[in-house]
What does this fold into?
Amino acid sequence: MPRNLSSSSVALFCLFLAMGSSMLLIQAQDYRKFNMSGMHAFRGPVPNKNLKILSSFGRGFLATFTDPNCARYPTCQVEALALTSKVGDCTGHTFYEGLGMMGLVCFGTPSFSSAESDEEILAALQSITILKDVITDKRIRLHLPPAPSNATMAATSTEAEGEQRRRRRGPPAGSPRQNGNQKAEVMIEPYNWGRDRMNQINSPLDGYTDTCASRGQDVRIYVLDTGCRTSHVEFRTCLACSSSRATTESVHLSDGYLPYGRGWDDNGHGTHVAAFAAGLQVGMAPAATVKCIKVLGSDGSGSLSSIVGGMNMIAQAKRVSPSVPMVVNLSLGSRYSNTVNSAVERLASLGVMVVVAAGNEGQDASRTSPASVSSVITVGASTTADQRARWSNYGSVVDVYAPGADILSASYSGDSSYVRMSGTSMASPGVAGGVACMLGASHGSPCMSSDIVVEKISNPRVVVSQPGGGKPLAYVADGSQVSCP
It folds into this structure.
């Protein structure tokens, strides 16, 4: 679909929607060299100080190569190193080979008593012909959607009816029972109305949350977020099993440095998102492998360089395992940026299905990135009444709507704890899980594209109204698959 957009400076943020908070500060992470498979880092001479300390005073920049393949070749890397090192003492360099990008940190030239402004360095970097779409990596403030009313936070009557039907089904298979005359413990399976809605064409909810036949088997779902609680029951291979289908790790930085340790979720957003995508009882693809990459801290803050680093890790994984079907969920976004869009477009061009949250400002999503990328699946949030959530972004760039209001999913607070959250952050992973269902049933069909998937995942009868025309509600049919022409 055509997407005519104007560029602006990027300010990356996570679309956290545990309603009630007012705003978050996006803090730029210390910029360090990446040192991992598929990445090359260069560093020129710097004053006799530790790079980690210098980074806190330097300014980070990200750039896309005019030729995206350039970042993979040593000769091009050396040329980029030589050209950028002459600008503002830009001596910390990272090459994101999988995305055709580079990152650098600049400290200002010795001839100035104070470092040059970001604008001066930015202009000089933009004049280098082998680079394009150079942007700064800096901290910003953002506003979250308004807090919902009590009525919005409470389960609607439609959801309550579905939950009661769910309860009447009795305990799930494998539930523990007491022997003798002792009363059996009543085990109620957690109920996610979003999963219930996505497996049926019409309302009302029937209480059955069975998912697709393939269950996302042999598909890998990546979640770039705050990490995951991989020990949660939702990520087990079965209710009675102790093994987990999920792993979590920090984005990798220089010299083996992991800014987020083991990648554990200390915020809750990432665990909730991942479980809706692939949870055993509340997720859409309960047999998929979950790979969480922690790129955001405990307060939901992060930098663009961290997000790009996470995407580059996925790009390298796809190059290593090209036959493995992969889906990426990005419940995050920014104001429109060519650089952000280029990184995501590059990832999608490798055959990775990218699903993105539309945003929660109640505005046209064409103003944001990466929701405005045509090669991704952009998801808006719907309510139990199959209406657009009042805070959900909308517009021609939105491909499909999915349940995103008051979604029950896994909590990071305990292995069997659950919590309700709202937002396009919650709608996106539901669709990501649905895409994994299709990839599993289609065995990673080589003809798969975002347009084909959107057509297959669209409800044939339900259209969600939005300014400028409606878009379909997501629907994952049992046995959904894509066949090549």
Summary: The chain has a mean pLDDT of 77. Residues 332 and 397 are 16 Å apart (CA to CA). The first helix runs from residue 51 to 55. The first strand starts at residue 13 and ends at 14.
